[in-house]
Amino acid sequence: MRLLRRNKSQASAPVLDPINQNIEAVVALHAVAEQGVDRHQRTVESLTAWLGRPQFFYGILVGIFLWMGINLCLPRLGVTRWDDPPFVWMQGAAGLGGLLMTTVVLITQNRQGKLAERREQLDLQMSLLTEQRTAKIIDLLEELRRDMPSVRNRVDAEADALTKTIDPHEVLATLETMMEERLDADSSSEATSQIVAEQMDAAATETNEEIARARRDAETPEDP
Predict the structure, then answer these.
(1) Cβ–Cβ contacts within 10 Å for residue 94, how many?
(2) DSSP assignment letter at 148
(3) pLDDT of res. 14
(4) CA proximity to 68, closest of 55, 86, 80, 56
(5) What is the CA radius of gyration of the chain?
(6) CA distances from 216 to 169, 210, 221 (A)
(7) What is the dihedral sign for C-alpha 153, 156, 161, 165?
(8) Euclidean distance between CA atoms 76 and 63, whole angstroms
(9) 139 contacts 165 by C-beta, under 8 angstroms
(10) Do 82 and 89 meet the contact criterion of CB atoms below 8 Å apart?
(11) Helix, strand, or coil (residue 36)
(12) Cβ neighbours for 101, distance < 8 A, ≥ 6 positions apart
């Protein structure tokens, strides 16, 4: 009876979905990141989202055309216009608005850059942890293969190499070294190409001089 009850309780236990768990973890991380945002930052980001809409772009165009059209039509109605062409006041307002919008966008991008940096650090940590787990699994499988009498024991160099964890500092140093060597190779190839081009230019110049000299000799009358 106890065994049946235990089986029923295990069968009735909800099965956790890994996809939902991952989604909940991402939502939780996003919620934690949003909790540290103050009211001013939220206001600036809301303003940035509003400025990035197409309606705002169309509104700017409509405002510019209305400003110019009204100022051009006011003298016909006998009214003094407030901004003569080339519309200095409109240019000043556009410059001030551009400065404010640039500042607002930079403030938003600053926080987004910090969030992106944290995500990159989290991805790096998860990648390193996954690599360590994979190396451990391969090591256990190789140990199990060696201990099983029914499986022929053989040396697998690739599996032995995969059981070793990768040092990120060593990988980064190797990558930087390879990039420097590639840049040096590119610079040397550019220098070689420049030398070849200079030699070709010198040969072409010498050929042109010989042709001109031959023409002058041909045009010079011979002495009787």
Answers:
(1) 15
(2) -
(3) 56
(4) 86
(5) 37
(6) 70, 10, 10
(7) negative
(8) 21
(9) no
(10) yes
(11) coil
(12) 51
Residue type, position 68, single letter:
M
Rounded to a whole number of angstroms, the distance between the first and last alpha carbons of the chain is: 138
* One-letter amino acid for residue 199 of the chain: Q
DSSP string of 61-100, one letter each residue: HHHHHHHHHHHHHGGGGT---SS-TTTHHHHHHHHHHHHH
SS3 150: coil
- Cα–Cα distance measured from residue 196 to residue 146, given in angstroms and rounded to the nearest whole number: 61
Return d(Cα 152, Cα 68) in angstroms, integer. 88
- Residue-wise pLDDT for 123-172, tens only, equals 888 888 888 888 888 888 888 888 887 777 777 777 777 777 777 777 77
Length of the chain measured in residues: 224
Three-class DSSP category at 14: coil
Mean pLDDT score of the chain:
79
Question: pLDDT tens-digit profile of 162-204?
Answer: 777 777 777 777 777 887 887 777 666 666 667 767 767 777 7
Q: Which helix (H) or strand (E) holds 22?
A: helix 18-35
- Tokens of residue 54, six digits: 């197409």
Residues 6+ apart with CB under 8 A from 64: 90, 94
The neighbour count for residue 2, using CB atoms within 10 Å, is 6
Q: By the 8 A CB rule, do 116 and 124 touch?
A: no
